[in-house]
From TrEMBL:
Pfam families: Aldose_epim. GO terms for molecular function: carbohydrate binding; glucose-6-phosphate 1-epimerase activity. InterPro entries: Aldose_1/G6P_1-epimerase, G6P_1-epimerase, Gal_mutarotase_sf_dom, GH-type_carb-bd. The active site is at residues 163, 269. GO terms for biological process: carbohydrate metabolic process. It catalyses: alpha-D-glucose 6-phosphate = beta-D-glucose 6-phosphate. One of its GO terms (cellular component) is cytoplasm. This is Glucose-6-phosphate 1-epimerase. Its EC number is 5.1.3.15. It comes from the Eukaryota. Belongs to the glucose-6-phosphate 1-epimerase family.
């Protein structure tokens, strides 16, 4: 069955062999197996820590958590009661419908609306939907944010990011093109240095040392390459991109990170995280990433 609805997750199977698993918890994609044109055998493309919890006790360490409505610690007054990266990744979503089920793609739509728990920390009305589409060599995920306020209230202000953990050897992987972009280096020791932009000089960026860089107004198309593979990340409406790998320095302090987990992934996260999307009442904003296995 191409769309298999299980108690805690939805499993998508593409007729050409690819598959994906999405938890209701956080609508977190926790597996994407895909081949490439050169090698059709389906292999796991995402990293999930063996210490990750799937039971709703904390956000999943790996896969693709959805970051909304704030990135990192909240900075907007309306987000002040939220925890790091907001609530979307730690709420139970519902399966709204099967969007498509054929060779072009197997696609499902999840939804999240305010619950009493969410309203206690975030008062704005909204409707989120998250469309996950599996094609032969591609996984795309799209976050639709609707401001459901009826009257002419002030716009809904939010940040959003799709926090992919791409399975790749972090000591060999390179990301491009980021050269000449300005970025904020979150590994710096002081707030002043963290909020002072740097300019990327490297043609290809590695993550051999602890990296937590927020590139702004980026190009929207990134290549992640290592000796035995290449994956492309394309972004739509996500003007920024975050490159993160904690290496041992920070990774060993993350409770649900498996030992050496930082050696097995890179995050190249499309987002709108510098400033806020401002969405008028009744309007919908869509941010999307498409991950394609090139080889
Ligand atoms: O531990 P969390 O909340 O899942 O966040 C992981 C990382 O997510 C990245 O997107 C941030 O840039 C990092 O600063 C952060 O450490």
């Amino acid at each position: 069955m191409p769309v298999d609805v299980q108690p805690d997750r939805v499993v998508l199977k593409h007729p050409k062999g690819a598959s994906a698993e999405i938890l209701f918890y956080g609508a977190t994609v926790i597996s994407w197996k895909s081949g490439s044109s050169a090698n059709p055998e389906a292999a796991e493309r995402l990293f999930v820590s063996s210490k990750a919890a799937f039971d709703g006790s904390k956000p999943v360490r790996g896969g693709i958590p959805v970051v909304f409505p704030c990135f990192g610690a909240p900075t907007h007054p309306e987000h002040s009661k939220l925890s790091q990266h907001g609530f979307a990744r730690s709420e139970k979503w519902i399966l709204e419908n099967i969007v498509m089920d054929n060779e072009a793609g197997v696609s499902v739509r999840f939804a999240l609306e305010p619950t009493a728990t969410i309203q206690a920390k975030f008062e704005r009305p909204f409707h989120l939907s998250y469309v996950v589409t599996l094609a032969e060599h591609q996984l795309s995920t799209a976050l639709h944010v609707k401001n459901t306020a009826l009257s002419s209230t002030s716009p809904l202000e939010f940040q959003a990011l799709l926090h992919n953990y791409i399975r790749a050897p972090s000591n060999e992987v390179l990301v491009s093109p980021l050269q000449a972009l300005s970025y904020y280096d979150k590994t710096e020791a002081t707030e002043e240095l963290r909020s002072t932009p740097k300019v990327e000089t490297r043609a290809s960026v590695d993550v051999k040392t602890f990296t937590d860089s927020v590139y702004e107004n980026a190009r929207g198309k990134y290549e992640i390459a290592w000796p035995s593979g290449t994956l492309e990340v394309r972004a739509h409406n996500f003007k920024d991109v975050v490159v993160w790998n904690p290496q041992k320095e920070a990774g060993s302090k993350i409770g649900d990170m498996e030992d050496g987990g930082w050696e097995r992934y890179i995050c190249v996260e499309p987002g709108y995280v510098r400033g806020f999307v401002k969405l008028d009442a009744g309007q919908t904003w869509i941010g999307q990433q498409a991950l394609t296995v090139l080889n």
